[in-house]
Amino acid sequence: MNTCFMKTTKFISGACLLLFVSCVSQQEITSLDNRISELELHNAEVRKSSAALKSGLQSRTQHEEKLRQQAASLRARMEAFDEELRILTGRLEELEYQFKQRQERDSANVKARQQELSHLSESTQANEQRIAKLEQYLNLEPSGKTPTTPKSVAKIKAGKQTPPPLSEDEIYRMAKQAFDQGDADTAKKKFKELIERYPNSERADNAQFWIGEIYYREKWYEKAILEYQKVIENYPKGNKVPASLLKQGLAFKNLGDKANARLILEELIRKYPKTSEAKIARDKLKNLK
């Protein structure tokens, strides 16, 4: 009986299956195939979009990494520049302090000499007055030297005529001639006179440069650097700016300050690359490395 029941069940199931298959139309099967094809195409597009996004993300990550490296390099260069600027500022402050100290010493020496000359003048005047009194007392002929009194000095000064002022060309010619002959004091005095009397002269920047040259020739390099700096700051459009930068660099080199020497020579080459001074600076930089 059980065997008969199982056979009956299988028969019914098969019949149901046949009935179900017969119920599914060819149109529905085609629609399902089309739907599956659309899903496969959509899936392929999704995979393609995902790959493109992944590639773009990798490219962006690489670009960001490159930007971070460039930013780090720029920060390092800025820090190095700040350090060099700090060193140069400190060196200039030190030079200014040394110049001020030396100027104070020179001023004190000049004051002491003026006092000595004043005492000597007073002593000479007193001696001349005593000699005159002795000659008068002994009824002797005057020695021909008249005691110098304030009134006589005033008469002499009043009798002198003020010479006409020298032109800027005359002052510059006298100063340059003294410089060429090695008379540093006269040259320095005349160059300063030109700058003070004719500050807008076309020769003013040259005069200031030659003042720096006088100190450079005397190996007073700290003072020379400051005088060359006046050319750079006061006459930025003059023709002596490249030469002043070059001599500043050489002065720092002679002082043993290679860092500041290199910094100034590189500035000269950067700002005035086609000048003869820049060519010299390139040669000097080879020896500073």
List keywords for this structure.
289 residues; mainly alpha; Serine Threonine Protein Phosphatase 5, Tetratricopeptide repeat; 10 helices; 83% helix; 0% strand
- CATH architectural name of the domain at 167-289: Alpha Horseshoe
Number of helical regions? 10
Q: What structural class do you assign from the helix and strand content?
A: mainly alpha
Kindly report the name of the CATH homologous superfamily of the domain at 167-289.
Tetratricopeptide repeat domain
Q: Give the overall average pLDDT.
A: 81
Low-confidence stretches: 137-159
Supply Rg: 49 Å
CATH structural class of the domain at 167-289:
Mainly Alpha
Question: What name is given to the CATH topology of the domain at 167-289?
Answer: Serine Threonine Protein Phosphatase 5, Tetratricopeptide repeat
- How far the N terminus sits from the C terminus, by CA atoms, comes to 112 Å
Order of helices and strands: HHHHHHHHHH
Our estimate of the beta-strand percent is under 5%
Q: What would the principal axes of the Cα set say about the shape?
A: rod-shaped
Per DSSP E runs of 2 or more residues, the count of β-strands stands at: 0
Question: What fraction, in percent, of the residue positions are helical?
Answer: over 70%
What can be said about the biggest beta sheet?
A: none
